[in-house]
């Protein structure tokens, strides 16, 4: 089978297309014939080795997310069967052999989720990291639900920073599906069009508008949660728009790693600063997210594509370096790699 591998961290040129033996599933494992592999920022950052080039202990196959068809199952597997269309999440948590950038991947049963009827493989490959991160952000609201469902966030207001990104897009869609009032910030008119297409009720251009004033017009008492992509840039805004006992849920460090806090300003309103990383959030939380995302999919709540606010940017397996460079370069939309066609 064809696979993308790397044995040294570095720029995208460390990625190689090779032939490997098709893996066999063991007890409790599922083999998936991968159709589409989703590329996330975490994938190129892992491949780059953060800031230090290093030798990888094993020949690593990248990518956490993907979709395809169950090809074989090991003993004891009951949730999926051969022939099921599925989506995969956190396929390569240790940057090992199991990523989705290969024609077949073997995964633990709990990381392989059946796609509802009529949901495309493109949607399936666009879930994983973005949708599960968004789910986590929307379920850390003080006094809010730990699970999402239609109406679960009715009466709540969510501010999504950077609504044109993949996580922002998923947070908008899940928030609207769960009944929240969703406000989002974007950097320009084209991204505003995408955010509205995703379902955001209110879109603010942070380069031309007074974000605090606009948010307070929409939500005079403040927002329940900020889904934050750039805390180092936005912390003062977050403090100015969060309601008492509200949560700022941080999932990325766009704009820098360092955050200077005015401790007293956060203590007064009892603001919660919630950091999030899927690798350490725990299987119970991820399993709950997968169930809720599946319910949202069944309701048609997580579509992708230009008309739904998340343009798809496609590459072939042989163009993997270009796919990684596109994500690293900030391409607007979801980068997908077609692994197996036909």
Automatic annotation (TrEMBL):
It comes from the Bacteria. Residues 10-337 form the Enoyl reductase (ER) domain. Keywords: NADP, Oxidoreductase. Residues 43-69 are annotated as: Disordered. This is NADPH:quinone reductase.
